[in-house]
């Protein structure tokens, strides 16, 4: 394979991060929770709305958490990572577009479309992550993975900024009100996701499966069940893999908790909504160059050292956040999170890719994504309960240090050579 083709494949692969990150920022984090509360569930008690939002996120996450390893095994056995990824992307894009059609007070339909969209997003990521081993050699995993995350932060931040402007000044775009603007934001996000996925479909080539002839669907399913059972039985022998996964489960739980709880923490300290949106944009745009730098660090000093450096940064950030007093300090912390967030995520993906058998990449990334979803449970509960028991959200936030500490200690024990 010549250099030009290889470079084109890597950029095509990385641009999917640019495509799907818009969904995370614009739909999942920002507009869906706000619009659900103010429009689709208008008139319901606040505690019911919170329950419905939590239920929607939980249904989507649990569905993928349970299916991820099996889906990955099917894709590996049949050599169909791209077709399966395409199916989930189509589901996510269509469901996001469907949100534009849901009327006022139709919260059940909004929940249904949102769950499908999140399932599409999470499911596609299993196969997208596993395609890293098809577009790059092991020596380039760090740099290529970091390129994907960097483009994701930049693309997601740009579209989010446009959508924020759309909702703040709908009249500039010929829209009647903010409700119409939010609907357009959902539609634009769906179109963005679909459009920038095209390079991957055109230019990324996945490696041929071990079987010369693709088996029929019943045979493929039987083979996949058997392969998954064997992997469960033997994974305890792959010490380097399960030790990394255990470390990843702890420290990515801390990372996800900082992401998920930052807005709520800011609200608890009395910061305005405008300050929270500004902080989110700061994180997005600083994470773009920072992720690229971490890719270089991973190549020069190793992915494990790069992750450990990022986790040390998170420890300092958490301690600083527990003493934060004003919005200016919140912006500084948002910038600090941007410096390490993308790097830890990118190097984790590339380090894991270097530890697993390439011919079972989708299956092993199924486990990786399963733990990533399950990790989003422990941290928020830990922060919430410590905050309740101590009566202080600041002490609750400091509980995250336990997750970073355990994750770093276990990662240190991963034998890299």
TrEMBL record:
UniProt xrefs under Gene3D superfamilies: MFS general substrate transporter like domains (1.20.1250.20)
Bilayer topology: Multi-pass membrane protein
Keywords associated with the record: Membrane, Transmembrane, Transmembrane helix, Transport
SUPFAM superfamilies in the cross-refs: MFS general substrate transporter
Coiled coil: none
Residue intervals of the Major facilitator superfamily (MFS) profile domain: 240-417
Superkingdom of this protein's organism: Bacteria
PROSITE patterns in the cross-refs: MFS
Transmembrane segments: 12-36, 56-74, 86-103, 109-128, 149-168, 180-204, 240-263, 275-294, 306-324, 364-388, 394-412
Localization terms from the record: Endomembrane system
PANTHER family in the record: AUTOPHAGY-RELATED PROTEIN 22
Name of the protein in its database record: MFS transporter
């Amino acid at each position: 394979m010549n250099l030009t083709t290889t470079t084109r494949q890597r950029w095509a692969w990385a641009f999917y991060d640019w495509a799907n990150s818009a969904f995370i920022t614009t739909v999942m984090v920002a507009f869906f929770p706000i619009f659900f509360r103010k429009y689709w569930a208008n008139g319901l008690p606040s505690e019911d709305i919170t329950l419905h939002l939590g239920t929607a996120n939980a249904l989507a996450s649990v569905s993928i958490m349970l299916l991820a390893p099996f889906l990955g095994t099917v894709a590996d056995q049949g050599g169909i990572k791209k077709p399966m990824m395409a199916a989930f992307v189509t589901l996510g894009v269509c469901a996001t577009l469907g949100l534009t059609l849901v009327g006022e007070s139709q919260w059940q339909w909004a929940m249904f479309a949102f769950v499908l969209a999140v399932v599409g997003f999470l499911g596609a990521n299993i196969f997208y992550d596993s395609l890293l081993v098809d577009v790059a050699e092991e020596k380039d995993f760090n740099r290529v993975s970091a390129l994907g995350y960097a483009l994701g932060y930049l693309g997601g931040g740009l579209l989010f900024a446009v959508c924020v402007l759309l909702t703040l000044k709908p009249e500039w775009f010929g829209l009647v009100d903010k409700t119409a603007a939010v609907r357009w934001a959902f539609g634009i996000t769906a179109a963005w996701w679909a459009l920038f996925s095209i390079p991957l479909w055109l230019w990324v080539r996945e490696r041929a499966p071990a079987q010369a002839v693709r088996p029929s669907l019943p045979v493929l399913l039987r083979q996949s069940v058997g392969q998954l059972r064997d992997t469960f039985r033997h994974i305890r022998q792959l010490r380097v893999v399960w030790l990394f996964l255990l470390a990843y489960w702890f420290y990515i739980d801390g990372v996800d908790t900082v992401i998920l709880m930052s807005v709520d923490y800011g609200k608890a300290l009395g910061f305005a909504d405008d300050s929270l949106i500004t902080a989110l944009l700061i994180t997005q745009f600083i994470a773009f160059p920072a992720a690229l730098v971490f890719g270089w660090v991973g190549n020069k000093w190793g992915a494990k050292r790069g992750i450990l450096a990022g986790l040390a940064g998170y420890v300092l950030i958490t301690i600083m956040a527990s003493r934060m007093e004003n919005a200016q300090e919140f912006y500084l912390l948002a910038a600090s999170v941007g410096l390490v967030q993308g790097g830890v995520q990118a190097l984790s993906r590339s380090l894991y890719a270097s530890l697993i058998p390439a011919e079972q990449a989708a299956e092993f990334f199924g486990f990786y994504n399963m733990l990533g979803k399950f990790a989003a449970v422990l941290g928020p509960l830990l922060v919430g309960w410590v905050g309740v028991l101590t009566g202080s959200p600041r002490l609750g936030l400091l509980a995250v240090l336990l997750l970073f500490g355990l994750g770093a200690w276990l990662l240190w024990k991963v034998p890299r050579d």
